Amino acid sequence: MMKKSRTQQALSVAPLSAMALAALFPTISVAESYFNPAFLSEDVASVADLSRFEKGSHQAPGEYRVDIWRNDEFIATEDLQFVETANAGPGETVKSGGLTPCLDVAWLTRLGLNMLAYPELAKYKAGVCVPVTEAIPGAEMTFDFARLRLNISLPQASLLNSARGYIPPDQWDEGIPAALVNYSFTGNRSTNNDSYYLSLQSGLNYGPWRLRNNGAWSYTSGDGYSANAWKNISTYLQRSIVPLRSELVMGDSNTGTDVFDSLGFRGARLYSSDSMYPDSLQGYAPTVRGIARTNAKIIIRQNGFVIYQSYVSPGAFAISDLNPTSSSGDLEVTLEEKDGSLQKYTVPYSTVPLLQREGRLKYDLVAGDFRSGNSQQDTPFFTQGTLIAGLPEGYTLYGGTQLAERYTSAALGLGKNLGEWGAISMDVTHARSKLADDSEHQGQSLRFLYAKSLSSYGTNFQLLGYRYSTRGFYTLDDVAYKNMEGYEYKREENESQNEAPVIQNYHNLRYSKRGRFQVNISQSLGDYGSLYVSGSQQTYWGTDEDNTWYQAGYASGWRGISYSVSASWSKSVGLASNDRIVAFNLSVPFSTLLGHGYSRDKAIDRAYATFAASRNSDGKNTVQTGVGGTLLEDRNLNYSVTQGHSSSSGYSGSANANWQATYGTLGLGYNYDRDRREFNWQASGGVVGHADGVTLSQPLGDTNVLIKAPGASGVSVENQTGVKTDWRGYAVMPYATVYRYNRIALDTNSMDNHTDIENNVSSVVPTQGALVRAAFNARIGVRAIITVKRGNRAVPFGSVVREEASGATSMVGDDGQIYLSGLPLKGKLLIQWGEGKGSQCFAPYALPEESLKQAVAMATATCL
Prior knowledge:
The protein has six helices and 54 strands. It is globular, with a radius of gyration of 33 Å. The protein is mostly beta strands. Keywords: Cell outer membrane, Fimbrium biogenesis, Membrane, Signal, Transmembrane, Transmembrane beta strand, Transport. Pfam families: PapC_C, PapC_N, Usher.
């Protein structure tokens, strides 16, 4: 049996197609056709034994890598053994190449077949081919040889009752042992001060265990002061508990948001994992929106820790790629404008209504110390437990409790699927609290959530929510404060600094929370663009002040031109910042300005002109114009240059570039105005240590794929911008989807003349946090056409050829010509044209060194 690459299979089709055409002659019987070798050559001895083609079997049996589909659902890409099709009709042999896959009972189980419904299958041992279409009435199998796709159709009644998209746990890959480091470094140097921020996320993988640490270093200096600090944001150990469909976390983490608000803790958590279930049995992630007046630095905090920091251009922005570990709990957003002004607002994150399918139980257990980056809070020990149960007729019952020395709360709620009217949930929480002044309180909080998508109208109520709390209701986060009232400052050590410290947070427990409204609505207008409104408002007992943040916008386009208008309003209790901003943004492609069609290959057509204008409630106006676009063959270098004017700081300008390279991402920026000059830079990437060495990569995700193709350097990975194999043939594909099939494909067009990949597609199913390996068999060597003779005659047409050292295979064409790839400069070819040693010979060959520089080398050899 031979294993053929896709390239070799394609090469073998041409001569075999000629044979098939020659075979289309009157049959000598109904059962089979006669193939006369004389049609290929007058000398019958110069043609190999082709008797296997007389029955319509156009391809040799053996092992082929194929895409396997069951009932139009992709299952895997794997190597399968194929045997000759018995009693196949003419139409089937042409389609399948006369081949039938050899599927044993293990494969039938993997396909989801209910084995107990077919007792006769028990007689087949592992590895024995099962006649599927005979053993399972109604089953069908078709093999599209040209596309290397195997379609399997099984009656629905024969399958286990598994949801669409279900992948059995025995196919989940825990990954390989590895050490991982993810880094992100940003720096800023201006006329008045310097600042640096380094984020490190490191980890170790061994079997199902994941050890992770997340820390950050920051440094600021200027005007006679400096501050230098390292903060350990989190350290935890995690693993999947497959039988429970759960995740276990020990260390620093956050609680869930299903029933209670998210809290940081140091302890242990065991919770149901939605990602272990198929998509059809279970999405929402926080998107941070805002409007920047200038080239601003954005900082996002959660529980007092900085979880995201970057730079944004003037105008409306949306941050949708936050680390999944920070996708719960309120997000505190700070925009540091270039002129020194600050914008502060809070983006609430609450999950959509808590509906579960009938019979589904979802639990979450936590025990540990309360943990916050806010120095104003203590660390009380607490326990938390929640349970969500799916009931018949679209109902969901849920509840939970939080217990601490100075705090007790219990929640109970009900959700309902309203069909065309969307989904709602309502719950009530009762709490007893003892605050920092030892005063005792008790109260209730009522929460209402609603979600609906009106697809036919283009409307999406992603989340509408309202919470009402009585005067005596407090949360565990409130009880953790050491004082009834206080401020959290950006810097604590500022004795050498004359200016007042920047207020980061304010709390006043005498102002207990009263009502909270949040909204996120989008409306599509078809060809006329789209509208959106999002925001929140929190009111308090004891004061008329509130925390408010709203943003609304309209966006549309015309003939490649895009434009948007947006407005935002924010204010916070105890903080002086109260800002209203209106902005307009316009982008025009150069292809439109030049009056010709868009061409992806021309850098000028990938460029665009921009215009941005904004005005805030203080009367500060900003206007900027600029150009931007992408460069390089892979379009992985983004650039922008702007020039503008501000009523507060006069003229201004900027130049920025970001390169998404193979071993990381690099960004450079320069900003200036009337009063200052500043440079900023960003560098991020990943380092992976594994059994085969160390591999550098772009920034890692939580779950990643290590690509192993030894010797195949500089090969691109499909659908991954900038990702290529290094000089050893290794690469990392970040951000794999857990518990789902991930298709990894190497771009054969990016290979050099001396690299061949036997099968360029692989499929993996990683577990949470895993580094899984996708291995490819690369053949590095010469591509050559070798003309082989035996005596003074060419070796028989159609003979099978194999190079002994590399294992490269092919078939003899006209006049003894053989095309082979991945050949060493010296080797020996085994040529077979029939059964027995009398029907084979060996042809030693030697290629000159110049062959390494040629696309296809030409040579001759003698078969002995």
